[in-house]
TrEMBL record, chain A:
Keywords: Repeat, WD repeat
Stretch forming the signal peptide: none
Annotated source species: Carya illinoinensis (Pecan)
WD repeat feature ranges: 13-54, 350-388
PANTHER family in the cross-refs: GUANINE NUCLEOTIDE-BINDING PROTEIN SUBUNIT BETA-LIKE PROTEIN 1, TRANSDUCIN BETA-LIKE 3
Name of the protein described by the UniProt record: Protein DECREASED SIZE EXCLUSION LIMIT 1
Pfam family, one: WD40
TrEMBL record, chain B:
Start and end residues of each Telomere length regulation protein conserved domain: 626-737
Protein name: Telomere length regulation protein conserved domain-containing protein
MF-aspect GO terms: Hsp90 protein binding; telomeric DNA binding
Organism lineage: Eukaryota, Viridiplantae, Streptophyta, Embryophyta, Tracheophyta
InterPro entries: TEL2_Regulation, TELO2_ARM, Telomere_length_regulation_dom
Matching PANTHER family: TELOMERE LENGTH REGULATION PROTEIN TEL2 FAMILY MEMBER, TELOMERE LENGTH REGULATION PROTEIN TEL2 HOMOLOG
Length: 388, 916
């Protein structure tokens, strides 16, 4: 019995002149944003497979390490993170980016950690039955009323400001936060995108409440993922992966103490993804395994579900498809691998790129996947099309 | 004759008058009784009516008298009236009134008996073909003239059911075609085809709420039964009289039957049709075969009048598509009814033996379509082959070969041509492959060795087909190959069969290959799921166990998820004391179950089948990007792969002339000379390793001459290299000298132009200058749409495209080397060789005459000497006209004059030089 041959990409987007560092789909329109190591941000039409616009948004010497877009920050916005210590938020006008960024955050960070926008469980995301006792409005109200920990004045101010801004900006809904590894690279910072102010710093120094752990114990923060679990009464949670392979889970109501800490990996955690329901996720690291875990907010526990071992180490990017069926990983070994998210069995090894893959990303309708690679191409894939 | 026609005209006029009277009476009627009376007055002239039943209805006394007073004309007169009424214009006129006005205004008030006797009678006892033509168009009428359209439609449908189904109207219609009527002019007689079309269109035209019997399934079934009863009744009487006496009318009736059947097929109900036809014809053939006849079977069929019906019916079907559908369905039906080979053959023979001879389309349908493109159960395939290819009646249980071998050979060749194609193995469905393989096998069985020899390439193609199937990973495909091979070997040498597979050791080959053929007998929609199951069983690709497995899992998961729900209610209890340790483990399994159940709910298991997970790391081998690595890889002679990759990149790396090149050059030269390229030789490679090695060495000599030459010259007379390596060294030096001599550098040509341009007076100073390539248009100001306070003006002009520039689509290509670039830049050929000439020549000349271990240029290795002299010659040529040449010439002349160079070597050297 012969297996099906591995599929080829449906399209390959060429045009970047340097390693493509990250790719992100527009939340509603057929657009793909890609950022390359020479600072160029390109917008592609994913139907016609053509460049819609191209702009050098960060200096060529530093380059872009991350592009991100999310319905939470507004449908016509895209965020680029450069290695020049800035995060810029751009408006998408017809035919391209705005001339100047609408917001520029000087984070003064010069590391390799990609920023993370907030992930919120979507209404139609696969929910585990019985758990969903917060509906959308209740949770918004809860968020507005219950501010962050009173001791953090700065955070509180930021929050009120942000809610004002939210009121003004009709497009944006929900909190416009971005989590990013901080100026001190062992810290995680949460910034407000509207006011360009830092809300909170999450330092690992007090991790586990034991003060004798030195700050350099875990090393640099290598991956972050911010999310709003339905159970958290609307307070932001952050999952951060560190250089030593450990992960910390924060609830920013309690920035002093992380919810939990776990260590799945033996090498730096390079990528963390959370699924659409915010109840589970996947992490890739520089070691030879991928770990799928479940997050239980009420218990504050992060439990590994499945560990997938790899032949060749190094996963630089992971992405869980919005419908929660499959996950994709971008490997240093030039491969994009597809796994069944529920069972964790391997589904495909996609060999197209001939250099390290930097990132994978799924479109919000689950139909397309993009893989960005150091070989300066972006490949578009259509795998296991979701039933419509 | 004239009298008759005159009389007919008079009659028609009388009928028309009467009808006009009736219509006006109906129109002006105030009471329902008046309408009944009016209609009755006409009906009584046309039909034999039963008064008592009519009177039992509730008609007013006054009108009852009127009705009773109406006199029924004698039988004969009535018949004439009837003819004139239906064949003329009277009937359509009246029918319109009846169907619209009467139906919507009065019919509801009619007593039942009156409706039957004075209303329905016009349709039921009428001429069916005319009745249908008036009724059916009514079905599509839209609301108009204030008629209650719903009532009109439902009434029409009622009448259709009544006329066509309950009173065998279709059969009557067919009979009407038989009855030769001199009085019918060809003009009024509707064409058979139109009528058949009208009849067949009824189910489609009927409304959704129409009676069930008008639904296509039941309706077609009914009219098929009616028309087929024609065949049986003909047996008794009609055939004897009419059929043979008057062919043309008989043909008309059969024409109608054929047309109707083909329309039914066209409307997608061939299965309904055949579910009636197949049993009848099977019974017919069985009855003929069972009766003992001494004469040949063919004669029996020829003589039997009932058989004529079937034969002519098929002939009457002109529509190729319909014939195809009918034969397809017939085969399937016969297969499900387990007809024997003999019966099936005679059925096919009976139906098609004439058409297959006369119509090429039918022939190609059997010989091509049914054998190559469609799939039937294997028994059907045997029948098809027997009937269409072998063309002779079969034995009790095996195919027999007829006299005409031509058809068999042709068919086999066509089959083999398709069967042996690799694309067919790869792309055709498993059922198709099984079918065609069986066809090949069955027809091959009938061939003899001599006949096979007579064909051109059948044997070759068989072998090709077998071999490409044997490679298949699919067991079934391999089995097909081995079965065909077995048959083939039996044909070639019956005593020595070839068993490629252990499983097919018996004499009889199972051409179905163990596939359960889907039972296509009951083609109702209701058994679709069952069919699906069978299909999936048939497709070997999905093992049954897997199905069961997932199904079981699905059930158990559902159970699990239910239990889980129950447990969750407990789980939420806030006061419960929880031991975190146990919880840390519990949710894991819980969530696993949860996900699994989710899986089975959405049945994503099937949609998430893994692709081929084979992963090789050939593309991940370390790419050599450093010269040091290249040297290292070249030294590892046991890693042929690495050496090859090193040779691949060596030239490019050297040409890039990195800083470290000077340091590694001598090492690299040594390893390159000593690497054994013959180990790496691949037959027919585009660029052999030897070439790559030489080009890398040339590159080294060109980019880094002194260091490389030093090593190379040492190696030239070293005892550690063999003759071929020495020759290679000299070749490389020759090439390098030539390359150095022809080194090209591009220099921009100095552009001369006036430093100060004068502006003509006519042009304002702020306009841009008019200089530019010839053909440029004059400057035009761009109109600015923006603000008026615009200080700058913009100008544009069109430039002609450059001569070398190609416009392709919208994309402009700038990178093409245009001729103008070459105009502006000049290529300088700069001879770089003379600088290195001494380094090339002197060391090589130094030691040529010394006889050392393994080095003997003057005697044994004269070929090397020839190469050496050639190399020196090329070097001199490259250095010619340069001062270095004069310095190098004397030692070279010395060498050539040397006493060691005797005549023999000189001649050989010359020869050698000439050759190269």
């Amino acid at each position: 019995m012969s297996k099906r041959p591995t599929p080829d990409p449906v399209a390959v987007l060429r045009g970047h002149r340097a390693s493509v560092m990250d790719a992100s789909f527009h939340p509603s329109r057929p657009l793909l944003f890609t950022g390359s190591a020479d600072g160029e941000l390109r917008i592609w039409d994913t139907v016609q497979h053509r460049t819609v616009s191209s702009a050098c948004v960060h200096s060529a010497a530093h380059g872009i390490i991350c592009v991100a877009s999310s319905p939470l920050i507004g449908a016509n916005k895209v965020i680029s993170q450069g290695r020049d210590g800035t995060v810029k938020c751009w408006d998408i006008e017809d035919g391209g980016l705005s001339r100047n960024p609408s917001v520029t955050i000087k984070t003064n960070t010069y590391h390799f950690c990609k920023l993370s926008l907030v992930k919120k469980p979507s209404a139609h995301a696969p929910q585990a039955e019985g758990h969903c006792y917060h509906d959308e409005t209740e949770f918004r109200g809860a968020f507005d009323l219950e501010s962050l920990d009173g001791s953090k004045e700065k955070a509180e101010r930021g929050l009120t400001e942000s809610s004002n801004v939210v009121g003004e900006d009709a497009h944006a809904e929900g909190p416009n936060y971005v989590a990013i590894a901080g100026e001190q690279s062992h810290e995680v910072e949460v910034w407000d995108l509207n006011s360009a102010e830092r809300l909170v710093q999450l330092s690992q120094s007090s991790a586990g409440g034991s003060p004798n752990i030195s700050t350099s114990e875990r090393g640099m923060c290598m991956a972050v993922q911010a999310f709003l679990p339905a159970e958290s009464q609307g307070s932001l949670n952050v999952l951060a992966g560190y250089e030593d392979g450990s992960m910390l889970w924060w609830d920013i109501r309690h920035p002093g103490v992380p919810v939990t800490s776990i260590k799945f990996h033996s090498e730096p955690v390079l990528s963390i993804s959370i699924d659409e329901s915010c109840r589970g996720g996947i992490s890739g690291a520089a070691d030879d395994k991928i770990v799928m875990y479940s997050l239980d907010h009420s218990l504050g526990s992060c439990v590994g579900k499945k560990e997938i071992s790899l032949e060749r180490p190094g996963i630089s990017g992971t992405s869980i498809r919005p419908d929660g069926k499959i996950v994709a990983t971008a490997g240093w070994d030039h491969r994009v691998r597809i796994y069944n998210y529920h069972k964790g069995n391997a589904l495909a090894i996609l060999k197209y790129h001939h250099a390290t893959c930097n990132s994978v990303s799924h479109s919000s309708d689950s139909k397309l996947m993009a893989s960005a690679s150091e070989d300066r191409t972006v490949a578009l894939w259509e795998l296991y099309p979701p039933k419509s | 004759m004239e009298d008759a026609s005159k009389r007919r005209r008079e009659l028609e006029a009388a009928v028309l008058d009467k009808v006009g009277e009736v219509i006006s009476a109906v129109r002006s009627a105030k009471r329902v009784d008046q309408v009944i009376c009016a209609l009755h007055s006409l009906a009584v002239l046309l039909f034999p009516l039963d008064y008592s039943s009519l009177l039992s209805g509730s008609i007013d006394q006054r009108y009852r008298d009127q009705v009773l007073s109406a006199k029924a004309p004698p039988e004969e007169e009535r018949w004439e009236w009837w003819q004139a009424f239906y064949r003329g214009a009277a009937y359509p006129t009246l029918a319109r009134v009846l169907l619209f006005d009467v139906a919507s205004n009065w019919l509801a008030c009619f007593p039942i008996s009156a409706r039957v006797h004075v209303y329905d009678v016009f349709f039921v006892s009428g001429l069916s073909s005319e009745v249908v033509q008036t009724l059916v168009p009514c079905l599509q009428k839209n609301a108009s003239d204030g008629h209650d359209i719903n009532y009109v439609l439902s009434n029409t449908e009622r009448l259709l059911v009544h006329c066509l189904l309950e009173n065998d109207g279709v059969l009557q219609m067919a009979r009407e075609f038989c009855q030769s009527e001199d009085s019918i002019s060809e003009r009024t007689k509707p064409s058979v085809a139109t009528l058949a079309q009208i009849v067949a269109s009824i189910p489609d035209k009927a409304r959704l709420r129409a009676p069930v019997s008008l639904s296509s399934h039941l309706f077609f079934k009914q009219i098929t039964i009616q028309l087929l009863s024609l065949a049986e009744k003909r047996d008794e009487k009609v055939l004897d009289k009419v059929d043979f006496s008057n062919k043309s009318d008989m043909d008309d009736a059969l024409q109608f039957v054929g047309e109707t059947f083909s329309r039914i097929c066209r409307r997608g109900s061939a299965d309904v049709l055949l579910s009636e036809i197949a049993p009848r014809i099977l019974r017919h053939v069985q009855s003929l075969l069972s009766s003992d006849f001494d004469s040949a079977v063919i004669d029996v069929f020829e003589a039997d009048p009932g058989s004529q019906f079937w034969l002519k019916m098929i002939e009457a079907i002109k529509d190729v598509y319909a014939v195809e559908r009918i034969s397809e369905q017939l085969l399937h039906h016969l297969a499900t009814e387990h007809a024997s080979d003999v019966e099936a053959y005679w059925i096919l023979w009976l139906l098609f033996h004439r058409t297959i001879r006369h119509q090429t389309s039918v022939r190609s349908m059997f010989v091509d379509k049914f054998v190559l493109w469609k799939t039937f159960p294997i028994c059907c395939l045997r029948w098809i082959l027997q009937f269409a290819v072998l063309e002779c009646p079969p034995d009790a249980n095996s195919l027999t070969k007829g006299h005409s071998i031509r058809g068999l050979v042709d068919t086999l060749q066509r089959l083999i041509a398709v069967w042996s194609k690799k694309e067919f193995v790869q792309s055709a469905s498993m059922e198709q492959q099984t079918y065609v393989s069986a066809a090949v096998g069955l027809s091959l069985e009938k061939m003899s060795k001599e006949e096979l020899d007579g064909t051109n390439d059948v044997m070759h193609l068989i072998l090709q087909g077998v071999s490409c199937r044997l490679e298949s990973p699919n067991h079934l495909v391999r089995k097909m190959a081995s079965s065909v091979a077995l048959v083939f070997s039996k044909v070639i040498d019956p005593k020595n069969p070839l068993y490629l597979d252990d499983s097919c050791s018996g004499d009889i080959i199972d051409w179905e290959f163990g596939l359960a053929t889907p039972d296509k007998g009951n083609l109702d929609a209701s058994d679709c799921p069952e069919k699906d199951v069978l299909k999936s069983k048939a497709s070997i690709l999905a093992p049954e166990s897997d199905f069961n497995h997932t199904a079981n899992r699905g059930i158990s998961n559902n159970v699990k998820s239910k239990t889980k729900k129950l447990s969750e209610f407990k789980f939420v209890d806030p006061d419960e004391i929880i031991d975190p340790v146990t919880l840390n483990h519990e949710p894991v399994s819980d969530i696993d179950d949860d996900n699994a159940s989710e899986n089975s709910e959405s049945s994503s298991d099937s949609s998430l089948q893994p692709y081929d997970l084979l992963d090789d790391d050939t593309d991940l081998k370390r790419k050599l990007s450093q010269l040091v690595d290249v040297v290292g890889a070249l030294r590892k002679s046991d890693d042929a792969d690495g050496v090859e990759r090193a040779l691949d990149v060596a030239e490019n790396l050297v040409r890039a002339s990195p800083d470290e090149l000077r340091h590694v050059a001598s090492d690299l030269v040594r390893t390159l000379v000593q690497v054994r390229c013959s180990d790496l030789a691949v037959e027919g490679e585009e660029e052999s390793a030897e070439d790559k090695r030489q080009r890398a060495l040339v590159a080294l000599l060109v980019t880094c001459p002194f260091e490389s030459l030093d090593t190379l010259n040492k190696l030239l007379y070293s005892p550690n290299v063999d003759i071929s390596q020495r020759i290679m060294i000299l070749d490389v030096m020759t090439d390098a000298a030539q390359e150095l001599a022809n080194a090209k550098t591009v220099k921009p040509k100095h552009r001369t132009g006036p430093l100060i341009t004068s502006i003509s007076e006519s042009q304002p100073w702020f306009l841009p200058g008019s200089s530019g390539p010839p053909g440029a248009t004059s400057w035009k100001e761009i109109s600015e749409t923006g603000t008026l306070l615009n200080w700058s003006s913009r100008y544009e002009r069109e430039l002609p495209s450059k001569s070398g520039q190609i416009k392709r689509g919208k994309t402009r290509r700038w990178s093409l080397r245009s001729s103008s670039v070459q105009e502006n830049q000049m290529e300088w050929s700069h001879n770089k060789f003379p600088v290195y000439a001494a380094a090339f020549m002197l060391p090589a000349m130094q030691g040529f005459d010394k006889k050392r271990h393994g080095v003997d240029l003057l005697d044994r290795d004269f070929v090397v000497l020839g190469k050496l002299i050639y190399m020196l010659g090329v070097c001199m040529k490259c250095a010619a006209m340069h001062p270095e040449a004069s310095a190098l010439a004397p030692p070279l002349l010395d060498l050539l004059r040397s006493r060691y160079l005797n005549l023999r070597t000189s001649v050989q050297c010359l020869n050698d030089t000439m050759q190269t």
